């Protein structure tokens, strides 16, 4: 097989993909970039309204040879495939070490009403989370813990920021995510759906270990996580059914957002699957 023809760096397709690094263009086109074999693999399998989420794939020759199964799956799904040189892929990616595979995807966020209608048991709510890497990592943690949905409030970072997408390592394609919802509406909607709201805060008056010991965490739960620097404002904490702190048993001053989110989400996941929990499996 000969060397495939490479797309010109000045191609309109390359220009359009490059523009998706900017939020304004992502919002206008309702498209974003997914980078790396794991994210592209998940994008190929994902459907938005019955239509493949991945619509276009850029691949270096080396990456295409290394990930032939991804190229074949994309071709079978009817995805347009462009072979490109390393510089062109790096220019679209705008990262120091691009991974050679870049997918152009349709937006895939879910209406908040659809999430409520599905009667979620475990939800992660990001309120005023501004760091895209943290947002993507919390999304990945929520996916790993078996959460039913993630909600980014209107004051949080763009879900489709390239750093958020990379940090989610494909989890963005695994569970419903709602974006741009005011925190008051998020809380009231979830409470109306029978979900208990727990605000995660280092100064909380409830201790996570104590909550687990009393058996109060087995029901449907939404964790609200705040800004990396200043946490949750008083008005947001006041909306919650309880404000819970993760206990610090050692000498560390605090936990970072993603670590605290993982601890809280896994605590709920375990409680919900235990005896009497909302996800408990009856013996026999």
Automatic annotation (TrEMBL):
Coiled coil: none annotated. GO terms for cellular component: cytoplasm. Residues 33-111 form the RNA 2-O ribose methyltransferase substrate binding domain. It holds the Pfam family SpoU_sub_bind. Transmembrane segments: none annotated. GO terms for biological process: methylation; RNA processing. The keyword Methyltransferase applies. Keywords: Methyltransferase, Transferase. GO terms for molecular function: RNA binding; RNA methyltransferase activity. The keyword NADP does not apply. Belongs to the class IV-like SAM-binding methyltransferase superfamily. RNA methyltransferase TrmH family. This is RNA methyltransferase.
